[in-house]
UniProtKB/TrEMBL annotation:
S-adenosyl-L-methionine binds at residues 54-56, 89. Belongs to the radical SAM superfamily. 7-carboxy-7-deazaguanine synthase family. Binds 1 S-adenosyl-L-methionine per subunit. [4Fe-4S] cluster binds at residues 48, 52, 55. The keyword S-adenosyl-L-methionine applies. Pathway: Purine metabolism; 7-cyano-7-deazaguanine biosynthesis. GO terms for molecular function: 4 iron, 4 sulfur cluster binding; carbon-nitrogen lyase activity; magnesium ion binding; S-adenosyl-L-methionine binding. Residues 35-225 form the Radical SAM core domain. Catalyzes the complex heterocyclic radical-mediated conversion of 6-carboxy-5,6,7,8-tetrahydropterin (CPH4) to 7-carboxy-7-deazaguanine (CDG), a step common to the biosynthetic pathways of all 7-deazapurine-containing compounds. Keywords: 4Fe-4S, Iron, Iron-sulfur, Lyase, Magnesium, Metal-binding, Queuosine biosynthesis, S-adenosyl-L-methionine. GO terms for biological process: tRNA queuosine(34) biosynthetic process. This is 7-carboxy-7-deazaguanine synthase.
Length: 229
């Protein structure tokens, strides 16, 4: 965790029913999706039931500290920005994440949730922009996709595909078409670092005239693999 941008996490004395296990809370720029470029507080919850082959946050699988929801909200408020992103790991693997998201919305922040799509998103507050990562075959976790989530998506939400190969691209293109995803919400295609080049993916999107948005991870271009950035 980078000392410049990360906030020290103190164990909470609040009741267990009001706590979440937190890996880190830090201020950075949002690196992807609709709000890319905005100064954003990231609340990274600990734990994930998936093991994607390209995962870059394996350090959030275990450990962390139990922190009260009110303490989390106070830490977010201390950074003085409008955008908050709740991420992981898989944040929805902790049931009390739903309470945190509602509290953040009630306090007036612009809130997004980064989720694998393997867990039901139906209880997430409608004010939250749900960024659902549909797992491609190249992720190694395609069987974990919860397809029932697609019917719950609205224009306020976003769907992301991390593309590892041409086969992944063709698979994702078919999913977008089959479910008319572009008529439901923003659809984002990202290149998996080290597996395909950004230019390859960009050329494929243009050649196929896909109704999707190409994106790269801005934070990795700026800070590489440094945790807490």
């Amino acid at each position: 965790m980078n000392a410049v941008v990360a906030t020290a996490i103190e164990p909470s004395s609040e009741p267990t029913s009001e706590r979440l296990r937190i890996t880190e809370i830090f201020l950075s720029l949002q690196g992807e999706a609709r709000d890319a470029g905005w100064p954003t507080v990231f609340v990274r919850l600990t734990g994930c039931p998936l093991r994607c082959l390209y995962c870059d946050t394996a350090y959030a699988f275990h450990g962390g500290e139990w922190v009260g929801i009110d303490d989390i909200v106070a830490t977010v408020a201390g950074h003085g920005v409008r955008h908050v992103c709740v991420t992981g790991g898989e944040p929805l693997s902790q049931k009390r994440c739903i309470q945190l998201l509602k509290k953040l919305c009630d306090e007036g922040w612009i809130v997004s949730l980064e989720t694998s799509g393997a867990i039901d998103i139906g209880d997430v507050d409608a004010r939250v922009s749900r960024v659902v990562d549909i797992k491609t075959p190249g992720s190694g976790e395609v069987e974990r996709n919860r397809w029932e989530n697609i019917a719950l998506l609205t224009a306020h939400d976003q769907v992301k595909f991390v593309i590892c190969s041409r086969e992944d691209f063709d698979w994702a293109r078919a999913v977008v078409k089959e479910h008319a995803l572009d008529t439901r919400c923003d659809v984002l295609f990202s290149p998996s670092h080290g597996q395909i080049t950004p230019r390859e993916l960009a050329d494929w999107i243009v050649a196929e005239h896909l109704p999707v948005r190409f994106q790269m991870q801005l934070h990795k271009q700026l800070w590489g693999e440094e945790p807490g950035r």
